[in-house]
């Protein structure tokens, strides 16, 4: 049989691999000593364990004809693979499975169509998989990588990075940058960032626009550098339990445009470096600004997934940003640790069926503004002192909260008083039949609103509050009426008013006289028949004025309560 061998000489390891490819048999070059077989020490392996990357690429791209009745495949363990493994733009019809191998160069499957690729427990350099199609599993379990770029890739099986260690690439490839640059139209700074030419070396995983049909399993991942997954879609879910993501340097914010709202805050500083903001930086609403200096552990705007688990020991040092994400299941931060010097969580404009927000520790502002959540399961300690809730809507709340704790929660917006969070909370209490709690929330809303008014408005508001609790405590008016009625009855029983018309026969009753003074319109015709004397005149005038104030407060409060609510 013709070997169809394009190489003049193959070393013994390559010859074994060449012969085994036709049937997909394993070629195991390991010595049996776990320490000596650690791929981290692969640079020291001798020629008996060395395979050129071009031999591997040639086999996968069809240099060896398959044996009839057998399924070809490349399965190699414990090898040192030298050079760059370049499969870009190729069509790979056989599966690749590398176990405990050391690859010193770049693995490039950009724009390629491949079968399943497995790199288990390997020591890898940079991996490029942009726009590739992997028909099956893309597996890096237990491996170490220096950057994984798979933007707009399509994986029909699973993406696995469990227990993997990923760091950013050392720097952008100058040759790649030279070939991508158009001298007639040089890239702007924003375009260079979007293409990864400016800050691509700051991201451990770049997976913008990637589609993974079978789910992404990143449990136990250790990433030094951010995960950039803007617009990615994980049909089988995204799982990062026990993963640890640390943003080492400032990852520049792509030019996605400003967020709605005022721009009133100052620039933020991070733990590792500082940057001066400019007028062109995008602003977050409610007084917070996310600038190009913000460090992102996870940057995943518009991500779509059937579930997303940032839970069970997940740790992020840097902002976790899921702005505009769509989660058709559970998004969980249960027992997570979130830490950032400015904003730890950015979950605005998001849609999620259920959000579990019960981190073990959280440091840095949280933003849930303008998101739509089906069920929100949280607890009071899940939030920092600064929480943006304006525009947030939810169908149900779960968790061991008291009404006082919920009121503290909706009042933590760094931009100050916002009516919508109070209205949304009151609407939920009404839906579950807790009308007294809803009234308590709306009363707290009016009291917070009072602080934003002018002095006259604050005075009238305080008067409404004391008199009838802004209409949400009408029993206060009755209490005031009883106190005033009792005081007037006691005083006018001791110091009886004089009769205005001596010829008119009337019998004085202190209780009825006081009641007639309190009622804005005389009912018993007592106030016109008797005239208070001495200092009791001031009491009578006070009773008349109090009656008008209580009546006005009751009418204003009733109008406020009966007014249609604009809450969702």
TrEMBL record:
Keyword Transmembrane attributed: yes
Q: Where is this region: Disordered?
A: 252-276
**Superkingdom of the organism of origin:** Bacteria
TM stretches of this protein: 475-495, 538-562
Provide the alphabetized UniProt keywords.
Membrane, Transmembrane, Transmembrane helix
Record's compositionally biased regions (Low complexity):
254-276
State what protein this is by name: Oxidoreductase
Give the originating organism: Planomonospora parontospora subsp. parontospora
